[in-house]
Amino acid sequence: MASLLHLDSSANRSDDSVSRELTSLFADTWRAAHGPTGECGRYRYVYRDLAADPVRPLDTAYCTLGRRLERNGLPPLADVGTWIRSPAEEREWALTRSLIAGLLAADTVVIGAPMYNFSVSALLKAWIDRVGFPGVFTDPDTGASLLRATNVVVIATRGGAYGPGTPREAWDFQTPYLRTYFGKQGVTEENIHFVSVEMTMAGVVPHLAHQQSSAADSLASARAEVTALAATVGRSASRTAV
Questions:
Q1: Is pLDDT of 39 > 50?
Q2: Cβ-count burial of 124 within 10 angstroms (0-12 exposed, 13-18 middle, 19+ buried)?
């Protein structure tokens, strides 16, 4: 069964959020491409708004449990519970395990990732920190990543221009960070997709007003790219499930 995990991380929950508009477009197109669920159960869709339902930051118990596992050779995901030594660790693992399970269950993940201060939002970073628990994405039998077949689609929105060839290209710590993070977790390069929208603040900030045409072109291009990706990414999983 094909499965989509849809994450929004913009603090702006209004209709003005470009990242939310585009992740919603992706999800709607993806679901239409995979057909109705009905009794056939042809796909599974899970949505989490990280602003409305934020992930709790890590604490000492998370770190203590993680270090204990690293000292003991990183036991597989199924065995983590046997290494818990306190109620605090139990609580932390319960929060963490559910997020890891959600990621592992998804064939495709679409993430709305607006640029905040040249990187990702704290809301998204909290999710990243928690699911990045030591060793949980490694297949205990083969050593391969359990995410090697997962498709990750990142909708990266930026108030200014940070794309290739722009004066601020080197200030983009958002795209390289996410590419490195998911690559480190085992998502293959060909399965990591970025759709970027530039100059989203052109209609708001007076000194960027002359960039409104460029901003409109960037958004139109992103909408087309999102629609095309959503119609094709993960289709093999859907065909297998039918």
A1: no
A2: buried
